[in-house]
Amino acid sequence: MLACPGGRTTDTMLKWLLAIAVALALGGAITWLAHGPLRRRDESAAGIAALSAMSWREFIRVVLEALSRRGYHRLVDPGTATGDGDYTLVRNGDRWLLSAKHGSAFVLGRAAVNDLTAAMGVAGAAGGLLVTQGRIDDDARRAARGRPVELLDGATLWPELRPLLPESALLPISESSAERARERSLAGWLLALIAGVAVSYVLPGPRPGAEPPAPPASAPLAAPAAAAAPTVPEAMPDPAALEAQRRELASTVATLPGVTRTLWTSASTLEVHVGDADGDPFLPVCELVVRFPALASSRIQVTPPPGSGRQVRFRQCRSY
Predict the structure, then answer these.
(1) Residue 305 pLDDT > 90
(2) 262 beta partners
(3) Which residue of 186, 187, 232, 257 has the fewest CB atoms within a 10 Å radius of its CB?
């Protein structure tokens, strides 16, 4: 079968196109992740740290301003017994109790919710808000379920307070998160490039730079000759072409009358099995052998049928 260099070129192109597609997909996904969810996470963490660095007075001022945009207004009532972090708010004629815990180290649990609901009962409040830059755990959230209590910790508090911070406070946060996003994106594209190259070598196919094997060439059959006439030696064909000539010669000799089987026992010996012990196929075999100049000096081993008592004979059609 003849090799098809065009097919190899197509396979190589498809392999590299797939490698490029993998690199683009991976690099694009990492870039989206770096400039999307991860950047928002970094900005939120930096924002919570900035809120924690505020003084208590500045922090509660920003919280009250954010709640005022939702319709809550502070009620100043000297007769209301509240703690230092508790404020009574009014919305739509109902009282709400605000309990604020300043600092990102806070982890508020069920006790904080229970304390707030108890204070709501004392103050006659319709609901309450528990606010901290820290974290409110799952136990506290289960305790607040079914109660008129809203929980705002760092992750949910930052988006509400961010628009109220001055530009001078937001700019370092934004620049820091953007820089980290760029670093992650650059690292992601480097990883994508490595992955693309790895894919190109993992996929089966000819390696870049590999030479396709030369197509086997068979010598044209010449008209049968009565005797082996001396010829001028020709250039030796390449190994692939020589192997193809051996296969063609063996299959052709196998079609001669009296020949039962042929095989190459070595690179220079063709074994010819005959079915008739008295038959001598040497002359017609040589007529075929001399058609292949590169094989003309091969030895012909004539093997008689088993049990015939005849010996194996070796002859040579031509010697150089």
Answers:
(1) no
(2) 272
(3) 232
**What share of the chain has pLDDT > 70, as a percent?**
85
Q: Residue ranges of the domains in the chain? A: 5-35+176-202, 59-161, 239-316
Look up the pTM and report it: 0.50
Q: How far is CA 132 from the centre of its chain?
A: 42
Closest CA to 80 of 65, 97, 64, 94: 97
**Secondary structure (H, E, C), the chain:** CCCCHHHHHHHHHHHHHHHHHHHHHHHHHHHHHHHCHHHHHHHHHHHHHHHHHCCHHHHHHHHHHHHHCCCCEECCCCCCCCCCCEEEEEECCEEEEEEEECCCCCEECHHHHHHHHHHHHHHCCCEEEEEECCEECHHHHHHHCCCCEEEECHHHHHHHHHHHCCHHHHHHHHHHHHHHHHHHHHHHHHHHHHHHHHHHHHCCCCCCCCCCCCCCCCCCCCCCCCCCCCCCCCCCCCHHHHHHHHHHHHHHHCCCCCEEEEEEEECCEEEEEECCCCCCCHHHHHHHHCCCHHHCCCEEEEECCCCCCCCCEEEECCCC
Find, among 60, 42, 39, 38, the residue nearest to 51 by Cα: 60
Contact 315, 299 (CB under 8 A): yes
Question: Does residue 65 contact residue 87 with C-beta atoms inside 8 Å?
Answer: no
CATH 3.40.1340.10 for domain 59-161, yes or no, is yes
Q: Specify the pLDDT at position 228.
A: 46
> Distance between CA 308 and CA 215 in Å, rounded?
43
Domain 239-316: top CATH class: alpha beta
